[in-house]
């Protein structure tokens, strides 16, 4: 639709009142859901994704396993009510398969699958609400869910979308912006600065790519900080709870050696 | 590195920070949309040295801290905060540089303007960027204190009004907070923020809330220079402002078409009339349909009556009772200026809005002044029998773009303005609008619903940058529907396999090539053509015979030997119809191997020809070239020389040259003079058309250097006379042999009414009479139309007379009555085209028929079938017309380029011109030196005298102190410039009157 909304107006405001380099509100929720080994719900603005992780566990079909490592199995379900227009997508939908395989290939080099030979890790992604940055939310939520399931990762994967309007780069796009401007999604491993995913479905001038790519990497660090804070808060809560438990049952607490790395200053 | 932050949005405030609304898609589906909004405290108020906002980075305040002190009602200074309706209705006032108070534009207002009218929004944005205005955009919807949420049962308009009031009162408190009273000092003066609105309800509510507000009129009355500002106030009174319409059902703007069966029955019974629709290029609200029932075409006034017809459609018209007949308008109404504020987006309501009202005003204003005398049948279109839509060359209208950033991928609805003035703007949806700006593009019309003011189309492809020669050339060919693709393999396979090594085989009776062919290789034949001509299709010879008679021959390239019926090459040539000549390009009808080599009668080589040979009894001094005998034969010739007109002329005039070839030319010339005299005596017309010649710098660069009028020499007329004679002789022969299917050409005498206007003008302005009873009488009276002081006057009258005539056409002898065969312009009872088979398809047919008539070859079956010949000639007629127009348009484009070139080098181009038409607000002028017709419009008050074809123009800027009268046939001086239309990038010739009155300063 010929939208009447200005993507970035002359005074530097985007249509939702943010400026160029402001990310949308992020909330992360790592609370336990059902029988899942780990789950996380993340919202980027109005995009909301819930990921549940099961495993590592024995695979249903042995033929699909590897003798030296675990298999990642990603399944995506997009709720029909997630967009304004109710639209049912079946599971064979090409967009959904592509989305699932993007997540899978992002995490394959990060998850230490070699620790779990002949097993399978199931990642179920539920998209509850969409407003741009779906892949970014999916990846971030998967990272958190894997963490909460206690699966060893080389690093936390942080994803951000970036776009460019005329010559001005912008971060974390809404649907409105994604429809209008060329954009890409970058997933980084913040500690090493390595990139596990870059995807772009629109045309972008080669000269602009470098700017926006660098910017997205920077933004990944910001998200990483937020993730780390959430994960640490949760771990502290768990540890505190364990502490209490130990204290009350055994009465001792002298050599409860907490994970040192967890307490390093930010 | 930039600072990347995460903007927090409190979940608890979701009511304020989320917007939820329903949207209806184009297909009628309702979608729920949720958007979020981040409220912030760092939105600056834009006032200089505001303490509260000083901490906000990147804000560069533009408003003076004291406001404006010029208004009598606000001695403490004030800022103006206009409501949406002020921008919608009073943009001219605000744009005026007399209107100087600092303006605060709210985001709410900006968005409302953007929704209501994009062009106005673009004007508003230009205003915000202007240096001489003090403006500030306040993003009230993003500032936490001023953001408002729509309440239950509140219309969007009321919500916006409330938002505006809230922002106004916030400004008020903000200013006073920023300047707290300091003890011991005088109370600081606090400037007011005045809400300007023409919405009475909003004013009332504002007053209740203690907000200072005013209507625009009242505000202006108290301002400085109020008298001059009041003039700029638009007439739309406060009571006419209606709130933003909520989505209403789309209204039908045009009446429904009648069903096909009703149309057919109506046309048959005579209640409806069928004809081709012609739009008026000067006035987009007017068109006409020539129908056989009336002498004058049926006039259609207004959009509803034209009912979605597009130039060239075959339509059915209902004629109104005679009491409602009207006269055509005499004003120039330009679509772009009248509708410049119209909006391309479909989501707008297109009902009875501002534009429609404005249009109605234009029409009414015109009708009121109309003289009752020139009424003509008036009617309305009730149905379209056949659409004649094709692809049109257009430009994107830049003001209809929502976003012009190169990177924008969003789909936009924009206007495409066709190059041809007779077409309406086309609405089109595209994702690449910004990239297409400044390009020529091809657009096809898909449909025109009766709920849509404009037809809808789609983008086909881009032709290239505007004014690049390639794009202009291709657009020209497309615009006139000229087939210009290279010849395909099937066609090239029809060429002789030897290629350019093909030669006439040596003479022998056994060779089929020489069967029934005369050997004319020894004759002193030469060709005379324009310089640079490659497709030589005619050559001539003349010689005295031993018995004292004179023999003259015309030899035409034997194209029918190579182009055989029922081959791919033949059908392609039939489809192309004619070769098209543009200034820098020729689009051939036949492949170049034939056209410029094997068929072309080049000098020094043997070529096959079709010869017409006359034997005349005329001796040296007899006045009449009496033809004793004419014979037609296929032949083999060898041209001795290819002359240009100029070379032949020099050779003829040089008394030292006495060789046989030169003598031949002299003999030909003598005969031609006699032929011409005979033709003129029979009443042939000497017509004039504005032909100019473009000088190109070199063949490669093809940059036009200059324009000059074509020169005519004696030798031009020599060739012309013999070609006419050959055509007439052939026409007689084939008509005799094939009375049913002979391919002939005729020129119908124009209906007398066509001349009425010209006769009237001539009588009133010059006291001259034009006798149009016959072509002879017309020729004689045209000769008398002279003005001793103006040698060009006669040419002008001839040009205007030519425009009153019908155009010549090919026809099939059996299809029309024998008495309508005549050629009016040439004053001959029968005529055909035979002499240019390389570049005209009708000539190829004539060749085949003549070959059959002399028993050289049997006639192909298709040429015996009347319907087939009729169909082929229908195509050829159309192509011929189009080719002429394309050629003319090409010349026009190059004249434009040449003018630009000239203007760059020196002073503006000023030329003499003649007035040929007078409108209420302008004059049509003709610049004979450039063959250019243009329009001079007057922006100031003029007094128009339709009866006497004159218009009085004030000579000075001060009111109507002195006036000068300009009338038809007056010689004036105009300044010619080519300027680009701002929106369409279309190069437009702009003429301004320089003499007798200099209007350069006034019309600016």
Automatic annotation (TrEMBL), chain A:
Pfam families hit by this protein: RNase_PH (PF01138), RNase_PH_C (PF03725)
Keyword Cytoplasm attributed: yes
Keywords: Cytoplasm, Exosome
Subcellular location: Cytoplasm; Nucleus, Nucleolus
One GO cellular component, as annotated: nuclear exosome (RNase complex)
Residues covered by the Exoribonuclease phosphorolytic domain: 22-152, 155-219
Leader sequence residues: none
Statement: the UniProt record of this protein carries the keyword Secreted: no
SUPFAM superfamilies listed in its UniProt record: Ribonuclease PH domain 2-like, Ribosomal protein S5 domain 2-like
GO molecular function: RNA binding
Self-association and partners: Component of the RNA exosome complex. Specifically part of the catalytically inactive RNA exosome core complex (Exo-9) which may associate with the catalytic subunits RRP6 and DIS3 in cytoplasmic- and nuclear-specific RNA exosome complex forms. Exo-9 is formed by a hexameric base ring of RNase PH domain-containing subunits and a cap ring consisting of CSL4, RRP4 and RRP40.
Entry's family note: Belongs to the RNase PH family.
Listed name of the protein: Ribosomal RNA-processing protein 41
Automatic annotation (TrEMBL), chain B:
Region (Disordered): 326-352
GO-annotated biological processes: nuclear mRNA surveillance of mRNA 3'-end processing; rRNA catabolic process; rRNA processing
Domain (RNB): residue spans on this chain: 517-856
Coiled coil ranges: none
Extent of Acidic residues compositional bias: 342-352
SMART domains per the UniProt record, alphabetical: PINc, RNB
Cell location: Cytoplasm; Nucleus
Keyword list, A-Z: Cytoplasm, Exonuclease, Exosome, Hydrolase, Nuclease, Nucleus, RNA-binding, rRNA processing
Domain PIN: from-to ranges: 78-204
Cofactor(s) demanded: Mg(2+)
Keyword Nuclease among record annotations: yes
Domain of life the protein comes from: Eukaryota
Annotated Pfam families: OB_Dis3 (PF17849), PIN_4 (PF13638), RNB (PF00773), Rrp44_CSD1 (PF17216), Rrp44_S1 (PF17215)
Chief site of localization: cytoplasm
Gene Ontology molecular function: any one: RNA binding
Keyword Isomerase attached: no
This protein's GO CC annotations: cytoplasmic exosome (RNase complex); nuclear exosome (RNase complex)
InterPro entries, alphabetized: Dis3_CSD2 (IPR041505), NA-bd_OB-fold (IPR012340), PIN-like_dom_sf (IPR029060), PIN_dom (IPR002716), RNase_II/R (IPR001900), RNase_II/R_CS (IPR022966), RNR_Ribonuclease (IPR050180), Rrp44_CSD1 (IPR033771)
Family named by the database record: Belongs to the RNR ribonuclease family.
Protein name: Ribosomal RNA-processing protein 44
Organism per entry: Phanerochaete carnosa (strain HHB-10118-sp)
